[in-house]
Amino acid sequence: MFEYEIMPMKASQAAAAAELEKECFSTPSSEAMLLSEIIKPESIYFAAMDGEKLIGYVGMQSVLDEGYMMDICVAEGYRRQGVGRALMERMLKGAEKAELAFVTLEVRVSNAPAIALYESLGFEKVGERKNYYERPVENALLLTKFYRKEGKE
To answer: Among residues 118, 147, 150, 153, which one is catalytic?
Structure first.
């Protein structure tokens, strides 16, 4: 078993995050795109580190009292070992601390492991976005975790 630490993500980690995205996503974000997101004051980003190596990250933007998850990414050799859950739990604690009404995200309809993780963390299916993803084209489930009842219609 390896040891890792979850910490706030730094702008200096954007290049490593971009490399990780190439491993995880069919349409990865560039280093410049990631850097512009990480440094926004409304951003909540966390990195999972195995020593000096970035092995995963999660990011969210807050708008007023709403949270929009941008990405979660875990290096292939570290998946199915609790890193993704630890990242999500840390991000959700950040959302709670920021007193957000909800956090919402999109996930490929075929990504059963991610859907199971999100549901175990209290996310509910609230909709579907047709042809949201490219390479391959696929629908996205829209999942939301509500913190306050008035945030739920």
So the answer is: 118
**Which tens digit of pLDDT belongs to each residue from 57-77?**
999 999 999 999 999 999 999
DSSP-assigned beta bridge partners for residue 57: 47, 73
Out of 31, 89, 106, 138, which one is annotated catalytic? 106
Direct distance between the N- and C-terminal alpha carbons of the chain, in angstroms, rounded to an integer: 43
Q: What is the pLDDT of residues 15-55, one digit of tens each?
A: 999 999 999 888 899 999 999 999 999 999 999 999 999 99
pLDDT single digits (tens) 89-125: 999 999 999 899 999 999 999 999 999 999 999 999 9
Q: Is 106 a catalytic residue?
A: yes
Phi/psi at 64 (nearest 5 deg)?
A: 55, -115
Of the candidates 32, 31, 36, which has an alpha carbon nearest to the alpha carbon of residue 17? 31
Per-residue CA distances from 112 to 66, 77, 81, 117 (Å): 25, 19, 16, 9
Fill in the DSSP letter of residue 42. T
d(CA 153, CA 134): 30
Catalytic residue status for 118: yes
